[in-house]
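Quick illustration for those who missed Monday's session on complexes.
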Amino acid sequence: MNIKPFSIELQAKIHLLMKYRRPIKLGEVEMSSKLVLAPMAQITHLPFRLLMGQLGAGMGISELVSAKGINYKNDKTLHMLSTSKDETTKGLQLFGEEIPAMIEAATVAESYAPEFIDINMGCPVNKVTKKGGGSALLKRTEGLSDLFSEMRKSINIPLSIKIRTGWDETCRNALDICQIAYDSGVEFVSVHGRTRSQLYKGLADWDFLENLAKDSALPILGNGDLVNPGMIYQKSLSTNCHALMIGRGALKNPFIFLESLVHESERKEVIFTPRDFLEIYFHYYDYLAQHFDWEPKIMITLKKQIMWWSYGLTNASHFREKVFPCKNLEELHDLVGNYFESFSSDPYLFRQKLHFDQSFMTAGHG
Ligand SMILES: Cc1cc2nc3c(=O)[nH]c(=O)nc-3n(C[C@H](O)[C@H](O)[C@H](O)COP(=O)(O)O)c2cc1C
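Prediction with flavin mononucleotide bound:
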């Protein structure tokens, strides 16, 4: 995939904020920043990771990919393993429950050149857990040591896991799992601060995550409800976690990895305008078009993204009504162009309207 440079104006803004990034190492895995992109099904494919890397994410993890699908050599599944040397540090996430299948899939995934392989141990979806995969692995602790060490032995790159705090309120065993992972050669652990039975309800338990990061022998990436730059910046100053993982916040605000690096007072010097949003829209389109050769897929991905970016902006509902029925790319590009250009030249006003509420995207695979 060919990476596309930004305009000089936008690149200058990005450059100003990028200066605040500090590289980190989690075990053997190097990252350019401790603010990283969470795995999200149907979202964190190569085009999105590439874009978020250009916009400051220190690392990105693919959407969950079925070990069985890989082993059956399903074309669509194998395509999900695509990576690029131009993207930020990347991991490919696998889900499954049987050790031989996970080993076989991990060796295939490794050949797609990620920096590490990640195991999904947080997916709460019944279809996955009833077979014993995703968050059901949190309950099967007796088999975990073999799963981790066998997988680790079968690949030449680091292995990480992504978990929740536990299965339910009575079984918040993340610390035990981190210990098993440490003893079995896992490099680091991403933790979504909810139990499986919480799904996306309530708030992520950051007290739990802070204690876990203090007590765990492995580096912890804290995750859950980090949705705006102010809170992420404050959290980054005080957290025990080695890195902070951002999911839904990056869907609403593509500049979140950059804007969260500095205090608001310094950030005010760098304002991302409607025109910048438009520029990255066309970048994203370019990457999607290189990656997916099926126009309806490109259309639906762009439509979803533009809905998220426009959420809370003036006339957004009217705009969405026009976007939904839109039938071809040219029409969509025009609509999006006209919409973002319609904002007043006051960029402060434009950004103040971006907001996040707890009901946004409350179903996911981790
Ligand atoms: C649409 C969506 C898809 C998701 N898909 C995955 C996935 O494939 N693998 C995974 O480990 N977590 C997945 N998650 C969970 C996120 O990685 C993250 O743990 C969760 O959204 C909480 O973080 P946030 O509050 O920053 O969004 C998904 C979440 C959402 C909203």
